[in-house]
Amino acid sequence: MYLKRLELQGFKSFADRTVFEFSPGVSAIVGPNGSGKSNVVDAVRWVLGEQSAKTLRGGKMEDVIFSGSHGRKPVGMAKVTLVLDNSDGGLPLDYQEVAVSRTLYRSGESRYEINRQETRLRDVHELFMDTGLGKDGFSIIGQGKIDDILSLQADERRGLIEEAAGISKYKYRKREAERRLQSTEGDIDRLEDIFYELD
Ligand code: ATP
What we know:
CATH superfamily of the domain at 2-119: P-loop containing nucleotide triphosphate hydrolases
Strand content: 15-25%
Radius of gyration: 21 Å
Bound molecules: adenosine-5'-triphosphate
Number of helices: 5
Number of strands: 6
CATH topology of the domain at 2-119: Rossmann fold
Shape: globular
């Protein structure tokens, strides 16, 4: 699995539709200070479901939408599409290519799509869980991240190792199953109360 293409439109400094094509191996993005290199990485984080505006170096989520520049009006929506080559079946979907998109309008309305099918943020998280590519995965090492990792608490460091080892998916499913079990036990308690009253 590798990142094949990244399409940005209205995202941060990328007012016009901009397409990055990547090949297997190392790619480098170079440019003068402030030209938008980090915005490209922010776009990858964002499309993978990042919910923190601060992590994306903004104050509120709307800040990811192009806010205008000299002679250029602000735009009304940001859209990012990330296309992965899935010919090795690294993602559990029966497609050679997997495209994930996120769109945000100034009204606050937002949408996620996987291969052009509207989907939930949760499905995007589950798709990338344990692949290392999720928004909390270790494949994006931002500026200062190494220092952060070195100063992590023991349990946080363990979380990082669990994601790398591919077991966080199972821990997540266990938590979900426990939550459902708890809610079912609550239902059973209520039913028993009703039976008791009817007796
Ligand atoms: P450096 O090399 O200094 O780290 P960089 O190439 O990584 O810089 P970025 O931080 O990606 O640059 O881009 C910063 C630029 O993006 C700034 O000029 C900023 O005005 C612009 N920018 C950020 N958000 C928006 C937005 N919503 N609308 C328009 N421009 C934006």
